[in-house]
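Async update (no meeting this week)

Hi team, since we skipped the sync, here's where things stand on the single-chain job. The sequence we agreed to prioritize is pasted below, unchanged from the tracker. I ran it this morning and attached the output directly underneath so nobody has to dig for it. Comments welcome in thread, and please keep replies under the output.
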Amino acid sequence: MVLVIAVSPIVAQMTVEMTANASWCEYNLSGSFHGKWLAWKDVSFAYVTCSICAWIFTCIEFAVAKAHDHVVLQQQHQVELQAKDVMYTQIEDITQILAIRAS
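Output:
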């Protein structure tokens, strides 16, 4: 999760910079308003797209972490139940041994 949060802004920034460079070159900004508008539109679209992707990856990472925690808790609960069963079995065995000795 930390990796996704740390890397997402860097990837977004690199993508926006590459899009900006491509847009500036493609529209050959010689001062025309239309060319500048198209370039800024491309840059804005790239930034929004990268932000949405970073958010989606972060949500996926949280979901995976939550599912993993759930599995770990289930395993711990199963181990606790097995330990209780073993303890009850030992108590029953001790009770039977004491009953045999008492008779």
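Quick observations from my side:
The longest helix spans residues 33-102.
The mean pLDDT is 78.
Reply here if anything looks off.
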